[in-house]
Design goal:
Blueprint: H1 12-35, H2 37-49, H3 52-68, H4 70-80, H5 82-102, H6 106-119, H7 125-134, H8 140-157, H9 160-168, H10 171-192, H11 205-216, H12 219-249, H13 255-285, H14 290-309, H15 318-326, H16 333-340, H17 346-372, H18 385-411
């Protein structure tokens, strides 16, 4: 079978092999690239000479490029399809990885990080588009959850396995290796994934932009947006960077113990992706609206953060395991929204929300670092517990306010979640 043909009734094993698996490779790399700085932060700060604000800015340029490309990405996915778009984008990530490996200044590394963010910008959105094209609508939450577990494995790879790789080479060697792997995944997607006709692909640019306007004028979209933005910002900014320094400075853990805890956090997140999809699938089949499932998961996620903010068990991995297990609740917004809009708009729906979420992650990760710098650093180069308490607590308050907004504006309304 060539890449431009497709079986009329593909079996599930074939879908998993030629659709799920290739896109999963790209999403694995997306999470791996996203999370590496949590482990290599000490080497970066020592070798390049970075303070907390610099580190936050460097790491968050990934999110800036990622978010900035989401709206064009949605148009491209709905016009050209996920196979073509994702296979080309990953080459940018490979180029960024090479540049990061040879960079010796904050500017060079930030540009490289931005190229990586651009290159993996379609990691999840292209995959969601492929899932809506190939898999039954009533199984989207479950398939999405299982798919996102692959991203969790990427986050796992960026913990203890990455730390072990740093015993064999330095962070530059790691990024050169990632560049090669990224090219291989791009070629696999291009050659193995079948093409499928896309409704609306022949629409004019004006018609596609009008579709985007339809998404952004939706009341449901703006009901769920604040909750999605704040919870995903907390997840991405903390898990992707600030969890490691917190465990060092507040938890008092050594380098190996930090890597181990980050490993369990990422492993829990991987399990949580699947668990969230299974629970959402079971609840909707029993008539419980997906909107209520979202409220339950996000409320529990905030509770896990409260354990961390109030330092109830600073040296324990338990609050971080809970953080990982519950972090994916807001991602249920994507199947909720995709079920509300026509299939032809699915790329623009997902990337529209992702634009806001990742701009939030960029701002959150950078501003958390800038805020931490307001406190005098510790003698060993770490940061004060009061600084972490203030910034982690601040993002928690924003999540609580967004949950109230979601509930009072109709988020717990009809079974379809549209209120």
């Amino acid at each position: 079978m060539t890449a431009d043909t497709h079986p009329s009734h593909p079996t599930l094993p074939r879908l998993l092999l030629v659709v799920f698996a290739p896109f999963a490779g790209g999403y694995f790399l997306s999470y791996l690239f996203r999370s590496t700085n949590a482990v290599i932060a000490p080497q970066l700060t020592a070798e390049i000479g970075l303070d907390a604000g610099d580190l936050g800015l460097l790491t968050s340029t990934y999110f800036l490029a990622f978010a900035g490309f989401q709206l064009p990405l949605g148009l491209l996915l709905d016009r050209y399809g996920p196979r073509r778009v994702q296979s080309v984008l990953l080459l940018s990530a490979a180029l960024g990885a090479v540049l990061f490996a040879v960079g010796d200044s904050l500017l060079t590394l930030a540009v490289a990080r931005g190229l990586i963010g651009l290159g993996v910008a379609g990691g999840l959105m292209a995959s969601f588009k492929a899932i809506t094209l190939w898999f039954p609508k009533d199984r989207w939450p479950l398939v999405n959850g299982c798919f996102m577990a692959i991203g969790g494995l990427g986050a796992v790879a960026a913990t203890r396995p990455l730390e072990e790789a740093l015993h064999l080479t330095d962070w530059r060697g790691v990024f050169l290796g990632l560049a090669v792997i990224t090219v291989v995944v791009a070629l696999t997607i291009r050659l193995a994934v079948p093409e499928r006709p896309i409704d609306g692909a022949r629409d004019s640019l004006a018609e596609q932009v009008a579709g985007l306007g339809r998404v952004f004028s939706s009341l449901l979209f703006w009901r769920v947006a604040p909750l999605t933005i704040t919870t995903m910002t907390a997840n991405l900014a903390i898990q992707g960077l600030w969890a490691g320094p917190w465990l060092r400075d507040v938890g008092g853990l050594g380098r190996d113990a930090v890597a181990d805890t980050l490993f369990w956090l990422a492993a829990a997140m991987t399990v949580g992706f699947v668990l969230t999809g299974v629970i959402a699938d079971a609840c909707t089949r029993r008539g419980i609206p997906l909107s209520r499932v979202i409220i339950g998961f996000t409320a529990l996620f905030m509770a896990s953060q409260a354990l961390i903010v109030f330092e109830l068990a600073p040296a324990s991995a338990v609050p971080w395991i809970a953080f990982g297990l519950l972090a994916n609740g807001a991602a249920l917004v994507y199947p909720l929204l995709n079920g509300h809009f026509p299939l032809a708009l699915s790329g623009r729906v997902s990337t529209g929300m992702n634009t806001l979420a990742f701009f939030g992650a960029f701002a959150g990760q950078y501003l958390m670092g800038a805020a931490i710098d307001l406190w005098e650093p510790l003698a060993d180069g770490g940061y004060q517990a009061d600084a972490y308490r203030a910034v982690f607590g601040g993002i928690l308050v924003l999540q609580l306010l967004s949950l109230v907004w979601y509930a009072v504006t109709g988020g717990i309304g009809r079974k379809d979640g549209t209120g």
